[in-house]
Amino acid sequence: MLEGSILQQLSDAHKTGPRPLRFGVYYKNTLVALCHALEDSILSSNCSPIVITAFQRGKWYLQEAERYREIAAKSRQIAIMAAPDTGFAEHPTSKLPNVDLVSLAPVDPVAQEWHLMILSPTYTAMVICQELSPSDYGAGGQPEADLERKFYGFWTFEPALVWETVELAKSRIGQYNPELEAKLTAQLKAMSSAGNQQPEDLGAIVSRVVDYLQTSHEDLIKDKHAEIPASHHEVLDINLVSNELQAFVRMAQLMELANTGNPMSTAEVAALAETMGQILDLPAWQLKRLRLAGLLHGLVPSLTPATSLPEETPCCALVPGIQALRAMPQLKAIASIITHFTEWWNGSGTPAGLAYDAIPLESRILGLVTDFQWRVSQYKASQNSRAESLSQALAECQALAGERWDPKLIEALTLLVKGLQQGLSLPVTPPKVSTGMWLFDDHQESDLVSH
Predict the structure, then answer these.
(1) H helices present in 154-307, as ranges
(2) How far is CA 241 from CA 175, 363, 373, 433, in A?
(3) What is the mean pLDDT of each run of 10 residues along the chain (451 residues)?
(4) In this structure, what DSSP letter does residue 110 have?
(5) Alpha-carbon span 275 to 430, nearest angstrom
(6) What's the CA gap between 126 and 128, in Å, rounded?
């Protein structure tokens, strides 16, 4: 990371703490699709955001300047940072009253960064990356095809991180334009004091992100970008698909954080689900599916409408929070697992009233460990010891065996709790899916297994 860059400052601020930042490598084609999706969400929303961007060079901004004329019409303020090129300041978008340019010195490390920060009273989103240095590319050197350029960083919907990064960007802007820094400070203060407003539908934004990434994937298949060798298409495609998955993970984590205040809750559920699967001696592909379902389970509310597609077996309720999952072929089975994890063993649950073995096994496991994790966290919040919290949560789950929970799974949970009380440690870590596709395999689309 470049010393003095905004990414480096943000990274340093989060080196210690419960949630260190998770960085990945992104190809330019992935970042273009991702940023276009987030930018177009401004056009379709009722918000009036503050937008701060960094384009590296003025020529990259000029390629997007017409889009930014439309975005400016919906925005409170736009600040654009870039090392200036011919035409940078002369474009009509640059002259709009709510658009301000910040001409970066070429030696400024921010001139190597790609930023998009969207901050509004109804939603936040951010992409913050910096391009790999020539030495980082290795022996092959920098790629000839523009879309194969690589960037290191991350993206998020998390409000606290976006506000923190906006403050860092604002300070950097102040080094070039103190008046603009003061204007942004006043606007941020006004936005903060405006109070809570009805939040944007994050599911719609995530659906747009996935749609745009899939469109970029289709472009690669059609070989519209002829300058990219066919042998390189696979790695670009993997980067796109892994970010589709990342969009859902980030959305689920944000919902969990808002609902529980525990930033590690999804990771805890995923670890418990995977360990339960190991106790039941499930195959590796099913363990992966359980872990992914655990990471994404926050997309479904605790109570869901009993609306279903009769042609699907088991029926898959049309739960708005997870409907977008079905747009990805790799996640159709995951969508069904999450849909049915609120079913009850005796058939009195939602959304479809499935009972006994008609409930997919992964759904039964996910439902049980989610409830168990919630109960443990409640007892811990009451200052109970870890051992007491585990015992009390287990006893409450055991009391519902045969009614809410599969009795055989309660037996497996009992073994798991005994292991935890004797020192078993679960691998509870935040997911880092941007650099690998280990969560996907050929079984993701297969029928759900019921035992």
Answers:
(1) 159-176, 178-193, 202-221, 233-260, 265-279, 284-296
(2) 39, 24, 30, 10
(3) 92 79 83 90 88 95 95 96 92 96 95 95 90 80 77 88 95 97 95 72 75 72 54 58 69 62 79 94 92 82 37 46 68 87 94 94 96 91 87 96 97 95 79 42 44 41
(4) G
(5) 16
(6) 6
